[in-house]
Specification:
Number of helices of chain A: 17
Strand content of chain A: 15-25%
Helix content of chain B: 25-40%
Number of helices of chain B: 10
Largest interface: A-B, 31 and 30 residues
Number of domains of chain B: 2
CATH architecture of the largest domain in chain A: 2-Layer Sandwich
Radius of gyration of chain A: 37 Å
Structural class of chain B: alpha+beta
Number of strands of chain A: 26
Largest sheet of chain A: 10 strands, mixed
Oligomer: heterodimer
Shape of chain A: rod-shaped
Order of helices and strands of chain B: EEEHHHEHHHEEEEEHHEEEHEHE
Shape of chain B: flat
Number of strands of chain B: 14
Chain lengths: ~575, ~325
């Protein structure tokens, strides 16, 4: 047995520097993570962390915290030139190691131990190193073999301090080491309890995926209402937060507002203060993988939505799950898998984003209702989609209608602009307000009225003159006008068009020319019509022009033709 | 005696029924107790892989377990059989069809093919996804890259069921100057191992760490830092020929785990392996010259796992050979 003289921890700097390094972490118990990190870097396949209480005189005793590994161990050279020498790590820049700076071990003195006993062996040398409270140490060569490294911290304390220490050690292990690639066992020998600290590397959110984008990097990712962002190197936590801006740039923080992830990569590093992930080139490379993964999980979400939509009956959980998934999808949808039926029709038919976009293109509207009605049934039979939903139900509802708008916008930007008309819409006016305005309930569009069998003689000249102005002004063929009276007191527009298949009059399509609409019917009780009718008695041209203009004004249609209408009124009447 | 290729007979013994199950039970206990770090073959994978040999798992589908008499480990044939079964398990489950139908048919005809199919179904279900010990694989990862000096440091891990019947893991740390002798490194610091290097390493796997070190160091552009050869086996069973002086009590065993290291950061050349073959003076002198030139030293070690009652005997055996070794009792 060889006993070496007493030494002090070595640093090129002053004691003040050492003091700062001792207290480098916000929580003094974080030194346990540093010791575990050293064990992992030593190549151990198991780490045993255990605590015991050694009773002393009276209430006071000693708390012993043990950390044992079976890794490479240390020889005298490593003890002298790395373990006890600050900033002398051999691991810096080594992608197979987690530790970098050579300052982790000294943090154990933040716990103010009475002593630290270390047993280690490597290359046929076996050593016992005893660190004293003043951070000096002595080392002794042993004859009996030791495998790996076993460290024991002796802390002064009574039984309540022991309980607190045990709690803190467990909390530290769970916080920093839960996804360690090496098994870590924690044993409280006083309580007689033992547990495996490791948890499986997975996420519990919606539409989750588990990916290995390149050797050495593993990602689990899913949608969440309140996501968490976690970075690991070989399973040790580098950063874990629910505040996206703490670990992501502003653009990604917005994109990942509903996407949580865990990413484990040997390329990721922590900052010197261990409080967050280092944003270097390797971080950017990992973020590029995360961006791809985020794009990928919307596909999983589409599959889940399609499965939900295909279920014949929904439970309340299905309903909530559907709304949540749709909302998540709207944040990431890029127009892919546009033929998957992810929208639930009210009468057994389901619809894809493409189906709804085409319906919107045809009529400027997408019809939604909460429950099936006779009207929705007739519409469905006439191949007009009516999907489950409620206009204006809001973001927390089971059908977030703004999510539908976002999904259709993404569809439009991928597919809509591929047609000339789509490109024009895309270029001159945003799809967003037009689609948002087009989400309506069938009752808002298809109106029950009393259609006159024939136009009353007193109205006929006025309507015929207006018809003439329109036909000449717009240079389009139009069926003669009919008239109707509303059945209830609700405000009914001045013009409706006939829809033979459904048996109701409906609002004219929101875009497209009037020539494409069905026969136009005029609300003969509408105040504006009654006003113009009185004007017609004194100013025929002006009244006919105004009624024709009113048709264009409804839904901002063909206003560019206004001058043509004026000329037509002057020339034809 | 088993013969994989014509003329390559391996002395073996077939363990049946409780003998085989006791062997597997002990094997798994040994692997748990051996505390194998990353310098050895993966102990957990070996224990899982061996679990497939248990009659409770294969439900009598296989008759016994063939043990290599040279190493006390299952033969290559057995390991590959389990590997094939695990690999094909998912497909087999699908092809066998509905379990409930098999249960009904097996109940009607207890000694028929239906019973055997049911056993196969349950066997494949149980082993599906089992972790396997690699019988031959090599992985090269980049440790660090110094682009200015065109120097790339690699960590190479080769796992193999050696022709001698033991599992070996070579862990090699080396640096490559210039062209891709070992591997090429892409812009993302990912390594693609070269075919030549792959072939070369496989060729040397039966050699000791020192020989491998010297061979690699002789390659142009390579700086070798460390070669470590970790070995699982041989296991000495009570019916096997054990080294002189090592007595195995009835139903006892001594499992051995060798570590052979040649590295520039080993402090002194030492031999702590009581089973290391003796080297003659002349060879030793030649090696010493090379070691001095290349700056490496060699450390050989071995740890043991045996029943608690045999620990003292094993320690005494080591001392008679001039070594002090870690001995774990189970």
């Amino acid at each position: 047995m060889t006993i070496d003289a007493q030494h002090a921890l070595q640093t090129a700097s002053s004691d003040a520097v050492v003091d700062n390094l001792v207290t480098q972490f916000a929580n003094q118990w974080d030194c346990v993570r540093e010791l575990v990190q050293n064990c992992l870097d030593a190549g151990t396949t198991r780490i045993d962390v255990w605590t015991e209480y050694l009773p002393g005189d009276g209430f006071n005793g000693t708390i012993a915290l043990h950390i044992d590994d079976f890794g490479d161990g240390m020889d005298e050279n490593i003890i002298d030139n790395q373990l006890t020498k600050l900033f002398a790590s051999s691991k810096e820049g080594d992608l197979t190691k987690i530790g970098k700076f050579g300052i982790g071990f000294v943090s154990i003195f933040a716990l103010k131990p009475e002593g630290v006993l270390l047993h280690t062996g490597r290359g046929g040398e076996y050593w016992e190193v005893l660190f004293h409270a003043d951070r000096t140490f002595s080392k002794t060569q042993l004859e009996n073999p030791i495998e790996g490294t076993q460290i024991t911290l002796f802390l002064k304390g009574d039984r309540s301090a022991y309980l607190e220490a045990t709690k803190q050690v467990r909390r530290t292990l769970k916080k920093w080491c839960k996804h360690s690639e090496t098994e870590i066992f924690f044993e409280d020998r006083e309580a007689g309890t033992s547990e495996l600290i490791n948890e499986s590397f997975e996420v519990s959110g919606v539409g989750g995926a588990h990916l290995t984008p390149e050797p050495g990097t593993e990602i689990v990712i899913a949608f969440y209402d309140e996501p968490e962002y976690e970075f690991f190197n070989r399973g040790l936590t580098i950063a874990s937060t629910t505040i996206a801006e703490n670990v992501l740039d502003a653009e990604r923080a917005h994109r990942f507002r509903y996407i949580g992830f865990k990413v484990k990569s040997r390329y990721l590093e922590h900052t010197l203060s261990r409080d967050t992930v280092l944003r270097d080139n390797n971080y950017q490379r990992v973020m590029a993988h995360l961006d791809k993964a985020a794009s990928g999980i919307s596909s999983g979400l589409i599959v889940e939505l399609a499965q939900l939509v295909a279920k014949p009956h929904w439970t309340p959980e299905d309903l909530i799950g559907y709304g949540k998934r749709l909302r998540f999808l709207s944040t990431e949808y890029s127009g892919v898998a546009s033929d998957r039926k992810i929208f639930r029709g009210l009468h057994g038919e389901n619809y894809s984003a493409g189906d709804l976009f085409r319906a919107w293109q045809a009529d400027g509207r997408i019809l939604l209702d909460e429950v099936p009605t006779e009207l929705s049934k007739r519409l469905s039979e006439a191949n007009i989609p009516v999907i489950f939903g409620s206009v204006g139900m809001g973001e927390s509802g089971s059908f977030p209608w703004s999510a539908l708008t976002e999904i259709l916008l993404s569809y439009a930007s991928k597919h809509g602009a591929s047609t000339l008309k789509g490109a024009v819409i895309d270029f001159f006016s945003s799809y967003r307000p037009r689609i948002a305005r087009g989400l309506m309930s069938p009752r808002q569009v298809y109106i029950s009225v009393s259609l006159d069998e024939e136009v009353a003689p007193g109205l006929l000249p006025f309507l015929e003159d207006t018809h003439r102005v329109l036909v000449r002004g717009l240079a389009k063929k139009l069926a003669p006008f009919t008239t109707f009276t509303p059945l209830d007191a609700a405000a009914v527009p001045i013009f409706l068009v006939q829809h033979a298949q459904v048996g109701h009059l409906k609002l004219p399509p929101q875009h497209g020319s009037l020539g494409q609409a069905g026969g136009i019917a005029v609300n003969r009780e509408h105040p504006h019509f009654l006003l113009l009718l009185r004007l017609y008695e004194v100013e025929k041209q002006l009244a006919a022009y105004c009624l024709a203009k009113a048709l264009l004004l409804q839904d901002d249609r063909d206003l560019i033709m206004d001058t043509a209408l004026m000329s037509a009124a002057r020339e034809s009447l | 005696m088993t013969e994989i290729l014509p003329g390559t007979q391996i002395p073996s013994r077939n363990l049946v029924d409780t003998q085989a199950d006791l062997y597997i039970d002990n094997f798994r206990k040994i692997m748990r107790s051996a505390r194998l770090n990353s310098q050895y073959p993966d102990g957990r994978a070996l224990a899982e892989h061996a679990g497939v040999f248990s009659s409770q798992v294969h439900r009598g589908l296989y008759k016994g377990l063939e043990i290599d008499e040279r190493t006390g480990l299952p033969t290559y044939k057995e390991w590959t059989r389990a590997q094939t079964d695990i690999t094909l398990a998912a497909k087999q489950i699908v092809s066998l069809g509905s379990r409930s139908a098999m249960v009904t048919k097996a109940a009607q005809h207890p000694d028929s093919a239906h019973s055997r199919n049911l056993a196969r179904y349950d066997y494949y279900t149980e082993i599906n996804g089992t972790q396997m010990a690699p019988l031959g694989s090599m992985n090269v990862v980049v440790r660090r890259v110094d682009r200015d000096r065109r120097l790339a440091h690699f960590h190479v891990v080769l796992d193999k069921l050696d022709a001698s019947g033991v599992f070996v893991r070579y862990s090699i740390d080396l640096a490559q100057q210039g062209d891709a002798a070992v591997a090429s490194v892409d812009g993302r610091d990912l390594a693609s191992q070269s075919d030549n290097f792959h072939a070369l390493i496989y060729q040397f796997t039966s050699l000791d760490a020192e020989f491998m070190f010297v061979k690699l160091a002789s390659m142009a552009g390579l700086q070798v830092e460390r070669v470590i050869k970790g070995t699982v086996g041989p296991f000495f069973l009570d019916w096997m020929q054990a080294p002189a002086g090592l007595e195995i009590s009835p139903d006892g065993f001594v499992a051995t785990f060798g570590l052979d290291m040649a590295a520039v950061d080993v402090e002194a050349t030492r031999n702590n392996d009581p089973l290391a073959p003796a080297t003659d003076e002349k060879t030793r002198a030649t090696y010493a010259q090379v070691a001095s030139k290349l700056g490496y030293r060699v450390f050989k070690d071995r740890k043991f796992v045996c029943p608690h009652a045999m620990v003292a005997n094993v320690r005494a055996f080591a001392e008679t050979r001039g070594t002090r070794n870690v001995v774990y009792g189970v």
